[in-house]
Amino acid sequence: MGDVGMSGAAACAGAAALWLLSGRNAGVRRARLLLAGGGAVGAGPPDWRAAAVGRVRWARGRLRGEWWATVGGALLAVLGASVLPLVAGAVAVPLLRRVRVAGQARGARERRGDAVIALCAALAGEVRAGRQPGEALLVAAPDSGGLGDAQAAVLAAARFGGDVPGALAAAARQPGAEGLRGLAACWRVAVDQGAGLADGLDRLEAALRAERDQRADLRAQLAGAKSTALMLAGLPVLGLLLGAVMGADPLRVLLHTGAGLGCLVAGGVLEGLGVWWALRIVRGAEAV
């Protein structure tokens, strides 16, 4: 009876996952297919290929990447007649969400750093063209986007004679915009001592560009180590596939026997610690 109950629960989980993928607004999607050329009124049902493509696109746009762990857990739950893979997939969702958010933050930081470099280059060009520093900043800043959320404050200071270096220093608190501190220093020296702002901006741009290229080169060198760690982390999945091909039924052994459950827990803990440690080493090398 216990196995029957577990099988029924796993089947219900799989059905719920499929229902989630297929969506609750079937009528709306059918109308979209008809209006988008998937079919015409009076011309019969639309092609099943177009319907399948539409459902896949809907699922990709509706589900975040981390939710596919739940879908995969539901499928394994159906195949293994156990709810444990579904629980593991649900537990993995917040962890994968943190990874995705961290990746997005890292991308935003890099884009902001590139925008600061572009701002320095554009501002130097405007100053050399004969514009005053405040006027040059008003022209260059909106096009580069290097000021980010603090753009309004910096532009207001430049337009009304405010503390532009202070506004730039405040904008430099944004992740990836640390180069604005150098811009604030160049601005202060140019205004207080009459030094050439364009020359200082050229040197600042060259320094920021060299630092960015160095980080990119280090990241490229560490890509091999990171790929190796992730490939080694995926070897247990390959072992399960080989066991299934050989007829050993590894899912039944892992999910329905005491020794298998012990091996599964111990292997999962060691696998997680290994991946965490390898990625920690890589991040530490990138931060140097």
Task: Walk me through this protein's architecture.
The chain is an all-alpha fold and 288 residues long. It is built from 13 helices and no strands. The termini are far apart. Residues 1-6 and 14-44 have low confidence and may be disordered. Keywords: Cell membrane, Coiled coil, Membrane, Transmembrane, Transmembrane helix. The chain crosses the membrane at residues 67-96, 229-248, 254-279. This is Type II secretion system F family protein. It is a multi-pass membrane protein. Its main location: membrane.
Number of helices: 13
Rounded average pLDDT = 79
Q: How much beta, percentage-wise?
A: under 5%
Low-pLDDT regions:
1-6, 14-44
Shape descriptor: elongated
What is the tally of beta strands?
A: 0
- Judged by helices, strands and strand pairing, the structural class is mainly alpha
Characterize the main sheet: none
Q: Report the radius of gyration as a whole number of Å.
A: 28 Å
Q: Between the first and last Cα atoms, what is the distance in angstroms?
A: 58 Å
Order of helices and strands: HHHHHHHHHHHHH
Percent helix range: over 70%
